Q: What sequence folds into this?
């Protein structure tokens, strides 16, 4: 975040919105007291996906035929080597999960498996009270304190005591 102006206020009511960039779970409630390191909201971001082509692997005539052989549905959690699809019969052919994950999509005889995700959180950044919830994103925090705001761009939040050297 870049501030267009520099502001210094010795005692002021500070109201800050803290939210995720995408939907998640809000962990606080209105009226709750929070400290700077408290987590207000969190979400899982999919990081890695794998496509399993059941249609080609089993050699079915149509993608729809391949989908009928899939033993799983969207949302199912998979462990490594779990059976995903099989032909059945005396010489059954089996497709197993190559790694742990979660099925996120099935279409045209293909399965999309999410194999890795990253947890993202948003912290309060100041000591205060939750005055409003931002649905599925975060909260608005209100506090009393000194505000020193200027140009900075590392997208991080800092907090701590502010000491003034009166002689210099």
A:
């Amino acid at each position: 975040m870049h501030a267009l102006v520099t502001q210094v206020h010795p005692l002021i009511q500070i109201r800050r919105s803290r939210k995720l960039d995408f939907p998640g779970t809000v962990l606080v409630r209105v009226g709750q007291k929070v400290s700077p390191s408290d987590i207000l909201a969190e979400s899982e971001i999919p990081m890695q996906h794998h496509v399993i082509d059941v249609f080609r692997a089993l050699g079915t005539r149509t993608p729809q035929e391949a989908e009928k052989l899939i033993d799983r549905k969207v949302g199912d959690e998979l462990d490594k080597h779990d059976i995903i699809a099989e032909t059945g019969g005396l010489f059954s052919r089996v497709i197993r999960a190559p790694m742990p994950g979660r099925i996120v999509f099935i279409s045209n005889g293909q399965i999309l498996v999410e194999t890795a995700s990253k947890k993202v959180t948003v912290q309060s950044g100041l000591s205060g009270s939750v005055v409003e919830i931002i649905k599925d994103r975060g909260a608005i925090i209100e506090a009393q304190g000194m505000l020193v705001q200027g140009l900075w761009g590392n997208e991080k939040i800092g907090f701590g005591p502010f000491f003034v050297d009166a002689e210099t």
